[in-house]
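Appendix B. One record, verbatim.
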Amino acid sequence: MAPTFDKEYVLKTVEERGIRFIRFWFTDVLGQLKSFAIADTELELAFDEGMGFDGSSIDGYTRIQESDMIAFPDPATFKILPWRPEEGGVASMFCNVVKPDGTPFDGDPRYALRRMLDKAAGMGLTMYVGPELEYFYFADEEGTEVLDHGGYFDLTPLDVASDLRRETVLTLEKLGIAVEYSHHEVAPSQHEIDLRYAEAGEMADIVMTYRLAVKEIAYANGVYATFMPKPIAGENGSGMHVHQSLFNKDGNAFFDANDPEGYNLSALGKSYIAGLLKYAPEFCAVTNQFVNSYKRLVPGYEAPVYVSWARRNRSALVRVPMYKPGKENATRIEFRSPDPTCNPYLAFALMLGAGLKGVEGKYPLPEPVEHDIFEMDAKARAEAGITSLPGSLWEALEEFKQSVLANEVLGDHIFGKVIANKEKEWDMFRTHVTDFEINRYLPML
């Protein structure tokens, strides 16, 4: 767990370390990191009164006639940025965005997650998450020239990719971010760094910092890092498997040693999974938010396509890692469909909202599916009651528009902005003439 800083600690550290600039961070509705910098001399005032900015140019924020926003820095998120020079250094803090009257701004993704975490707290529950983010290194942003041809867990000869991952892990540790594993992934030049689990609000901030750190270290070494879900046809795409659990005053609320079905899952844990399974197709437009996301969610590349759960079967949407004696607190579920481009604040909020719906409604958990679903034909899947995730952004958007849960969790403002943004993206995609069409149809038509 990261240390908790307060206003006095931050002011003292800025003075003692000679920090000259403090970057205020927040995200737009898509999860793109936004930032502006203030001088160290303005910091105390910013803590007391916030710093105003124009929200009309931020995707998913406000119309121009309602553009005034105020960013209040959260001292608990204070970081000195290790990729900036030490002399005249630069620090950062995530911000809570409010309206001029001091009330929370409904379009702030951080606030949307905080609302859901508060709901869980009212039920005596705290959400912990541990995401696994995959990404690719390429020679530059112009194409997909790989840096290595390694595979899963390969120990490649000393090369730029191995050193980049090492430097990135060391940088994350300087930022106070705990790393559990780092390794080469299945596809050429694909890598993964797994973060040690943390409370969901803290982890959403960490995910944003992690993505920036990966890109900064790559840039400093003359290469390009991308979290694009499927940059190379015919190779595995990049996912963000999200391990998650709920804790109460007695410990891990998902664990039950006396589970009559032998899964070591509590009734609460089973209903949480059932809620995730029921609502996951409705919020793919957030967890898998781009046209390219659905090039990853296809059979044959280890990404989940069908709505099911299992303990050993990695083709399932939700996996429950096998229980190890004495590791009750490690009992968790792994939600495997999200990709690393998602807005973590909104994604975690929707996962929690779906799970809590299941808990509140005591949703029954279907039987696990331990065989390879990809080997079943459509008739067998239908007979087993196995449905599919949306197959395109358009299908995901149509499900999202009808989702009472997504509207409830995100609020009218963000819900409407997501719809507007995705409709625009789909329109741009469907009217674009691709290389595939030119190469396939031009010679024959």
